[in-house]
Amino acid sequence: MEKPAPEILQNKQHFEILDGLRGVAALAVVTFHFMEMAYSDYSKNFIGHGFLAVDFFFCLSGFVIGYAYDDRIAKIGVLEFFKSRLIRLHPLVILGSILGLFAFLFDPFGGHPELYSAGKILLVFICSVFMVPFPVVTDRAFNLFSFNAPAWSLFWEYIANIVYAFVLCRLSRRFLLLLTVISAAALCFVGYSAGNLMGGWGGPNFWDGCARISFSFLAGLLIYRSNWIIKNKLGFIGLTMLLALAFVMPFTKWNWLTEPFVVLFYFPLVIALGAGAILTKGLKKLCVFSGKISYPLYMTHYAAIWMFGNYYASHKPGTGHLALIIITGIILLVGVAYLIMEGFDIPVRKYLTERRKKTLES
Questions:
Q1: Contact between residue 34 and residue 189 where contact means Cβ atoms under 8 Å apart
Q2: What are the DSSP calls for 156-197, one per residue?
């Protein structure tokens, strides 16, 4: 098989407002994770639907993958597509696993690593690095990836990328629409059965994640292929406010209705608006930064969340103290994510990309 030319691997221009919204969603996830450690009753959590940011990520991913690869995956081939995705995603999967392992072993506020053998801890870590679901750690609520809980969504992202490379990239829009409708029905069934769309992260709710990625990824891809881009002047601030409304909507007994509505209709609308919105020059740098830091923040923050949870359980800080800790924690985690992005993620991806291009040129 003829090797693709190195220039075919160049990234396309970004939708910068969508990049900015990805960062907003990442911040929502971090805030939600802090808050759920303090408030197990989600109806008392001001951002009780922050977990829906994952569904927004999935939908955005379908749109972006379609935009980036629909017209060139046949040229670069499936193998090069997988290499591109691994270089983009996997360095932080590994680093997030390492940080999670250290937090598990050396948490100053609690945890019980002594209850697990060295062999079991090593096996859990290896499974985390290689994205093999292994929900066996009781202390971590049987997360699919006990040392880095958010990696569950990356597992499903990888599955979606595999299905895209072998099936979806060749599928006509008619069949794509049919699959999207079927997956919408599956998502509604999950919402009705579970009472919400929170699942997918752990052993007992594993298949909920399949329904969540199936609809949202397909919907994002359908938006791109159908050119459902709505020109508007809402801008980044207006769209940020619209997106945030989904995360702060009340957590009630009607979640089985409201959450599927948001995922099925609201998030696709926000993405269609984001793709067609006009970005003012003054906010361009903010959107670019927000987009760049979103993935490092998402994949490295949870080690601190476990430690915060143990601290909260043992110290029970008051409301004022709690607010100060969470606000400070979010700021620090963004700072850490920036250092990781600049000192690890970007250099590693640059190194791997350059080696790959040299291989193609030889």
A1: no
A2: HHHHHHHHHHHTGGG--HHHHHHHHHHHHHHHHHHHHHHSSS
Report the run of H or E that residue 127 belongs to, with start and end.
helix 118-129
Cα torsion angle, 279, 281, 283, 284, sign: positive
| Three-point CA angle 103, 105, 108, nearest 5° | 65
Task: Name residue 110's amino acid.
Answer: G
Question: Between the CA atoms of 90, 92, 98 and 104, what dihedral angle is there, to the nearest 10 degrees?
Answer: -110
Which residue in the block uniquely carries the two structure tokens 């476990």? 306
pLDDT at position 110, please? 87
**CA geometry: angle 85, 88, 93, nearest 5 deg:** 100
Ranges of residues in the chain whose predicted pLDDT is under 70: 1-12, 362
Three-class secondary structure of residue 131 per DSSP? coil
What amino acid is encoded at 199 in this protein?
Answer: G
Virtual torsion, Cα 3, 8, 10, 14, nearest 10 deg: -140
The pLDDT of residue 1: 43
Quote the tokens at residue 296.
């490092």
Question: Residue type at 56?
Answer: F
Nearest residue to 76 via CA among 6, 12, 13, 11: 6
The pLDDT tens digits for 271-309 are 999 999 999 989 999 999 999 999 999 999 999 999 999
Tokens matching residue 138: 């009781």
Q: Alpha-carbon distance 53 to 336, whole Å?
A: 21
Amino acid residing at 201: W
Rounded to whole angstroms, the Cα distance separating 97 from 105 reads: 12
pLDDT at residue 28, as a whole number: 98
What six digits make up the tokens of 329?
Answer: 């924690």
pTM above 0.90, yes or no: yes
333 alpha carbon, distance to own chain's centre: 16
Q: How far is the C-alpha of 61 from the C-alpha of 220, rounded, in Å? A: 7
Q: Which two tokens stand for residue 252?
A: 């009630």
Which of 299, 303, 326 lies closest to 108 in space, CA to CA? 303
